[in-house]
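Write out the 3D structure for:
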Amino acid sequence: MAGVNPSTVSRALRDHPDISTKVKERIKGIAKEFNFTPNKIASNLRSNSSRTLALIIPEINMFFFPSVINGVTQEAARAGYHVMVLQCNEELEREEENIQMCINNRVSGIVISLSRETDQLDHIIKAIDFGIPVVFFDKAPPGGNFDTVKIDDERAAYNAVSRLKEQGCKHIAGLFGHPGMSISRQRLAGYTQAILTLKIESVGEAHCYSMEQAREATAQLVARGVDGIFSMSDEIISGILPALNFAGVSIPEQCRVVGISDGKLPFFFTEYIEFLHHDGHRAGQLSVLRLIELIEKPDSNTPRVHILDTPLMNNQHVAE
């Protein structure tokens, strides 16, 4: 229709400087008239690059992961990449399906936080063997064999319990997530180490799979005279505070709460809470920056583990 070859059409639609303004306008006018759009799939096959990244997360909820999604999508957009967000509902089978979908769609790279059921990495290795780089965040395999962005879970839990002792708590408890999650095990290990090393009386630990279970566990701890609670996540904090209020326990006068938090949820509560800040937005940014580096500079493929800082804060101001 335009009287030019296909390569000229392609370059004109991409505003290539080698094509004159007059030819560009003629070609774009025809494209608009006939509602033509370039076939991205064909273009991706030709270039062997989809410029699409996959973000695979255990679940989409109001805690932590929205901040991660924000960080990933913002940083990816700056670098000219699109992001496909997938969730596995904490199921290994669904996680495997998501990885296969990524392979089938030839994504350029994958950022992933593992499900609590994941106990083997065959599906991840398969993606890497297909030439798709992978960066883990938060819930990651142990060791330093893969690119990972995370916090020092054991140290963060230890510091939280130590903070409770500093504030005068004598009867401390810890509430943790599903025991199948690596971060639950690591944070429990840090809590236990602090209890033993600092010679603190522990009035109990519990694994909570939801806010409701955290409320029930907290009610039981109140009956045992708890005056300090470590919470390993925002979801658990959301169960602890209502339970303490319902039991008539004043915070922080009668019971202090220190948790690990993305940093947004605590500001929805009027009760004084301290937390070690696990910045989900920053985790997302650093994960995707490393992923893009692996995509665009294949020689930089020696695995790196980036440990995020977890400064102590509270929902009133930065703690001293």
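The mean pLDDT is 92.
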